[in-house]
Design goal:
The chain is an alpha+beta fold. The chain folds into three domains: about 110 residues, no CATH class; about 120 residues, Jelly Rolls, CATH 2.60.120; about 170 residues, Jelly Rolls (Sandwich), CATH 2.60.120.230. The protein contains eight helices and 21 strands. It is globular and about 60 Å long.
Length: about 450
């Protein structure tokens, strides 16, 4: 309690009291507090950026600006509103209106999150209360591993590319893993480490793991903007003690600055003692007979294959070049025809999409897979990577050529194994914990026996 003023205590003049009273009445703080009842950076925006943006948008990473603090984010509020509204950022190009929607490590934003970011930018991008700010994420080793801190890191040999060197293809060497015990791989992620900020010199790089006696164990590919590859725990590939990583297929591309770079490959392992039930293999579905005309939109390309035994489709990775704009994967079995996945394509962000295990397609023997894509060679603002709009192009390895394919990771199943998975998926769908989309026999119960046989 404040003691009452004594008669000798000086009192402020009436004019000062009036100014103080006016200050209370005109205090802008209540209005500011009212504005902050809407979205603020600390309470609403920062959690979204931490989950979906900061793995790239941070100091020393691949993005052109950091988005870690309010001071860093505020100048880009309008750009964040624009790029998220057109779903260019974060780079995840699954069509939200078609096909399966459950993928692992999905950084994409919901419609509500996009609307929130737009409202935040439109209302002046307020900072909010610092007490609402969540703890900043950590990036072990200075690298934004999306798989967490790797259990094993292998560094490729370094390469140097002159500022205007021609494209180069070839092997860049082999590196021992130093692994002392056999393990199974949960995830693998490859990051380019460069001495410049002029862009990536690795257009792509394939790598293989070989056992000490030279047997192939697993392979993966790194491409521009490539995310981590996640394996189904039931079909994780092995990595043997004493194995070697061979960087057998690199494509180097000049960036305009002399650059020395190498690849850092991180492996996360499943717990010791884990034993997968199945083996994963790869199917490349594509069409090398390309006939891409200049200055023409919406040119459709197709590729087909028929499954010779039942599979569980673990993941897909689309691959096109600058003219590629969209791709869909369909499955046809008897009278059932389903679109499994549709996606956009950006040659600077070549994504791999791993299905959630209970959403992964279950496809019977005899299923016809149809891969359909579209090429756009018109000079539109949405395709800044196309350097030649006028001339015909076909299949080729150079970035100015075109490709059309998708790498599919699949589990090959016996008839009994397939029927077991279909029965489990059907039960989960009835319980409301899974969908029948992608499980072709789940939609035709009377045909499961025929569809599941080898």
């Amino acid at each position: 309690m404040t003691a009452p003023a004594s008669p000798d205590t000086p009192r402020p003049p009436v004019s000062v009291l009036l100014l103080l009273t006016a200050g209370i009445l005109l205090d802008p703080a209540p209005a500011a507090r009212a504005r902050q009842s809407g979205p603020t950076f600390t309470r609403d925006v920062a959690p979204i950026l931490q989950r979906s943006c900061q793995r790239c948008h941070r100091p020393g990473s691949i993005a052109p600006m950091a988005l870690m603090t309010y001071e860093e984010v505020r100048p880009w509020a309008a750009a964040i509103r624009r790029e998220t509204a057109r779903r260019a950022m974060p780079p995840w190009f699954i069509d939200k209106a078609v096909g399966i929607q459950h993928y692992r490590d999905d950084p994409s934003l919901t419609d509500a999150e996009i609307a929130l970011l737009g409202t935040w930018a439109e209302t002046g991008a307020p900072e909010g209360d610092e007490a609402d700010l969540p703890p900043a994420p950590s990036f072990p080793g200075g690298v934004g591993w999306t798989i967490g801190e790797p259990d094993l890191i292998v560094e490729s040999p370094a390469v140097t590319v002159d500022a205007n060197a021609p494209d180069w293809w070839g092997a860049i060497g082999a590196v021992p893993t130093g692994l002392t015990e056999d393990r199974y791989i949960a995830a693998v992620e490859t990051i380019e480490i460069s001495d410049t900020t002029g862009g990536a010199v690795f257009h792509h790089a394939g790598l293989q793991a070989l056992t000490p006696d030279g047997r192939f164990e697993m392979g993966t590919i790194h491409e521009v903007g490539r995310n981590a590859e996640l394996f189904d725990p039931d079909a994780a590939p092995p990595l043997t003690a004493g194995s070697t990583i061979v960087f057998n297929n690199a494509h180097l591309h000049a960036t305009g600055s002399k650059t020395t770079a190498h690849l850092r490959v991180g492996f996360r392992f499943l717990p010791i003692g884990h034993r997968p039930r199945f083996e994963t293999t790869g199917i490349t579905l594509g069409n090398p007979e390309l006939d891409v005309r200049g200055n023409t939109p919406d040119q459709m390309v197709e590729a087909f294959t028929t499954l010779q035994q039942p599979i569980k489709l673990v993941s897909l990775e689309p691959h096109m070049h600058a003219a590629g704009s969209r791709m869909c994967l369909e499955a046809v079995w008897g009278v059932v025809r389903q679109t499994l996945t549709c996606l956009g394509f950006d040659p600077e962000w070549v994504r791999a999409y791993a299905y959630e295990p209970d959403a992964a397609p279950l496809l019977p023997r005899g299923t016809l897979l149809r891969l359909v894509g579209w090429m756009d060679t018109t000079p539109n603002p949405g395709n800044p990577y196309l350097t030649d709009y006028r001339n015909w192009t076909g299949w080729g390895s150079r970035p100015v050529d075109n490709m059309f394919m998708s790498y599919l990771k699949v589990i090959l199943l016996t008839g009994d194994q397939f029927r077991e998975l279909v029965t489990d998926r059907t039960a989960k769908a009835r319980a409301g914990t899974a969908s029948t989309l992608g499980c072709l026999p789940c939609t035709l119960p009377f045909a499961r026996e025929a569809g599941g046989s080898r």
